[in-house]
Q: What sequence folds into this?
């Protein structure tokens, strides 16, 4: 096998992925089966049968942000993505915090939740229902899953992509099969286009909360861009894959939402989507009456592997983000270590696998009901760094926006609109989190979501101060500093 020369300067293997593999990684990182089952119920609790409208509206800022990511990647195909782009647009401080700390923290929290879900479903599939309800047993299995997937991610992108093809295929097949069976069931209501009417949402508060939940359901496609330096046509293919991935997700989610509403409605008892007891796992309650006991197990398997596949992609993307930060002098040099044979950021991969295991253990000790709060917390972090990156696109290209109508639209108008929508969702969600009743956990009168979300951002501020002291060459603003060379690399 011929190995392509290393042209990245980071030791990664170029040409490992094509368009199809990039799309598969993007879809897998979102974990469509897992995301819809843990989010659709919460959305229905907020807006009822207008859940499809919320899914559609939540997709708008995601698509606009995807255009920003595509344009920035065309200009700067670096595996550091948001870190590099925000640093070049706004400087080393905002770049390190909004482009580095925030997305990495969101990913780490998501990894803990994904590992817990995958472990719980795995124990249930094996018939170990008692263990599936035991926090210690679920945590132990989740740690073992993290270890196994860390080993796969450490072996390289080609191995990870091959695994993802199988896992993604099972997810999409299960979701489509569920949707078809639900719509064909006797007594299922006829889907209505009125379910897509956003003007019927009762007030801005419920609308904003539902859209924030939908940000989580789409989040993750940008992980594929962190592999841009290992992708063929790195300035073109990752951006195309990002847009394709988001469109496939929209179609899949709308189809499943329409099917679930048609079959179950929004009642507050039984299998109704308005039943709060089913909110954290909608498909688990709907699959048996829709598919029957035997095929319901296939749906459980799909959710299990969905969470596992997303966890695998998180390990791939996070390690490459910190690799770029370390290469540019913003993190310890250990994160820049690349395995000599596998050509992967081995230290970073193992670090994130270990950190997720520790975080999972800590959160499990604090409360066994952290999953719903973790999802809401991640929505806050997503809105922060997606919105900042979209605005970074506008600011970075500000002197070239009038070069053509295309530049004005794709690098100016659309990213600006997406960025403002994201930051509006961030502000609204931060305000709502001030209520101790927000979410399912609270500690001494303070909501668990508020602690996880705003606490993560506050911790980032302290981490930034520590990084400034530890890496002064990166944070100096002089022309000779590392950050200045990064900021002016396009000159």
A:
């Amino acid at each position: 096998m011929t190995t392509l020369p290393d042209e990245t300067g980071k030791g990664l293997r170029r040409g490992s992925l094509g368009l199809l593999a990039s799309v598969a990684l993007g879809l897998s990182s979102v974990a469509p089966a897992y995301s819809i089952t843990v989010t659709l119920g919460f959305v229905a609790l907020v807006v009822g049968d207008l859940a499809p409208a919320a899914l559609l509206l939540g997709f708008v800022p995601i698509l606009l942000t995807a255009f920003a990511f595509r344009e920035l990647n065309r200009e700067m195909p670096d595996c550091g993505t948001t870190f590099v782009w925000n640093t070049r647009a706004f400087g080393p401080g905002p770049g390190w915090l909004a482009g580095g700390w925030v997305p990495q923290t969101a990913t780490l929290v998501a990894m803990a939740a994904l590992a817990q879900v995958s472990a719980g479903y795995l124990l249930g599939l094996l018939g170990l229902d008692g263990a599936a309800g035991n926090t210690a047993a679920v945590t132990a299995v989740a740690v073992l899953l993290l270890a196994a997937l860390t080993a796969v991610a450490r072996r390289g992108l080609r191995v990870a992509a091959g695994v993802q093809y199988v896992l993604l295929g099972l997810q999409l097949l299960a979701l489509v099969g569920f949707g078809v069976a639900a719509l064909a069931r006797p007594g299922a209501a006829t889907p209505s286009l009125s379910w897509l009417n956003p003007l019927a949402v009762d007030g801005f508060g419920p609308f904003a909360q539902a859209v924030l939940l939908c940000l989580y359901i789409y989040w993750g496609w940008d992980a594929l861009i962190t592999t841009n330096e290992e992708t063929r046509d790195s300035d073109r293919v990752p951006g195309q894959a990002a847009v394709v991935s988001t469109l496939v997700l929209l179609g899949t989610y709308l189809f499943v939402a329409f099917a679930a509403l048609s079959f179950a409605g929004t009642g507050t008892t039984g299998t109704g989507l308005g039943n709060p007891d089913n909110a954290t796992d909608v498909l688990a309650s709907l699959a048996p009456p829709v598919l029957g006991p035997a095929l319901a197990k296939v749906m459980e398997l799909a959710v299990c592997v969905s969470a596992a596949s997303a966890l695998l992609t998180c390990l791939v993307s996070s390690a490459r983000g910190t690799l770029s930060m370390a290469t540019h002098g913003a993190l310890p040099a250990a994160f820049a270590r690349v395995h000599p044979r596998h050509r992967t950021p081995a230290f970073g991969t193992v670090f994130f696998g270990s950190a997720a295991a520790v975080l999972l253990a800590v959160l499990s000790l604090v409360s066994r009901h952290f999953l719903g709060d973790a999802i809401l917390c991640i929505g806050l972090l997503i809105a922060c760094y997606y919105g900042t990156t979209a605005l970074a696109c506008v600011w970075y290209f500000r002197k070239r926006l009038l070069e053509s109508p295309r530049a004005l639209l794709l690098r100016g108008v659309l990213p600006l609109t997406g960025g403002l929508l994201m930051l509006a969702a961030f502000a609204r969600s931060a305000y709502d989190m001030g209520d101790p009743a927000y979410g399912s956990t609270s500690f001494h009168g303070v909501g668990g979501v508020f602690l996880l979300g705003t606490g993560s951002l506050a911790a980032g501020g302290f981490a930034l101060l520590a990084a400034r002291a530890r890496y002064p060459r990166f944070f100096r603003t002089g022309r000779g500093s590392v950050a200045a060379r990064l900021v002016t690399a396009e000159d």
Summary: Residues 1-8, 478-482 have pLDDT under 50 and may be disordered. The first helix runs from residue 19 to 30. The first strand starts at residue 442 and ends at 443. Residues 91 and 214 are 30 Å apart (CA to CA).
